[in-house]
Specification:
This protein is an alpha+beta fold and 296 residues long. It has two domains: 5-159, Ribosomal Protein S5, domain 2, CATH 3.30.230; 166-283, Alpha-Beta Plaits (2-Layer Sandwich), CATH 3.30.70.890. Helices cover 28% and strands 28% of the residues. The protein has helices spanning 69-81, 103-118, 125-135, 139-144, 178-182, 196-199, 206-211, 218-224, 226-239; strands at residues 5-24, 30-50, 55-59, 86-92, 148-152, 156-159, 166-171, 243-244, 251-254, 256-257, 264-265, 278-283. β8 (243-244) and β9 form a beta hairpin. The radius of gyration is 19 Å and the shape is globular.
Amino acid sequence: MAVRALCDVVAPAKLNFFLHVTGRRADGYHLLQSLFVLIDWCDTLHFELRGDGQLARHDLAATLPDDDLCLRAARSLQAESGTTLGADISIEKSVPWGAGMGGGSSDAASTLLALNRLWGLNWPRSRLMALGLKLGADVPFFVGGNNAFVEGIGERLTPVPVAPEWLAVVKPAASIETRAIFGSPLLVRDTEAVILEGLSAGGFAGIGAFEFGRNDLQAPAEAVCAEVAQAAELLQRCFGNSRMTGSGSAVFARASVGTGAAEQPMASMPADLPPGWVGRMCRSLKQHPLVGWAED
């Protein structure tokens, strides 16, 4: 029996445990190295099959832009596959936008994975990832399904194991335009590239992953958005560490103490966040919840 609907399809956010800018291509794109880690702060999407070829998005929480990455992903897959089917796509937005957490890219990736199944296309993961890269540099990571060491402009992914962590995440009210950060004269663009094998023979684990490196985008972000520095100081006081993710404005801290069954957050999320700020105690994920929705 054909699948008519897919409900409660999750789209998890990510954090950059570090983010180094190692150079710049002739076309202006910056070359990066980063560790992308999935977390359990998720958007939720619902898909219903349409036989008329139409694509429609329905916002169940926050109102999204008319032409968001989710709809663009659906149109791209529809055009590339030649299917005559369509879909109603409903989104419960939870991951804040303008945060550097990849919320829009994750929505697009989950849309590709879900419609690949709903429309019976059975594309392999590699083909979905190639299509995702045309939509945005972070989309292939979410389609790939694993925490990963990321290089290039986001297209080169090496899956790595990352030990489970409690992570305190705070998103200030302000959002930051990514273009402003990459155009900043404060941005370091020549951080020495590292070799994955030289960092850890067995991949990243726990504190070693978090304490490595820095986020080269943080200083430019703090220069244009004082709230980033305020959030970093807040988490530093509470947890003894902090780092911005992506191009901001969200900041996170490693919050785990203990190991195994005894692992727990070292402190609670601050209850007195400024107006308009949101915060959540999150868990890192070993894999994307939809990792089995496409064949390798």
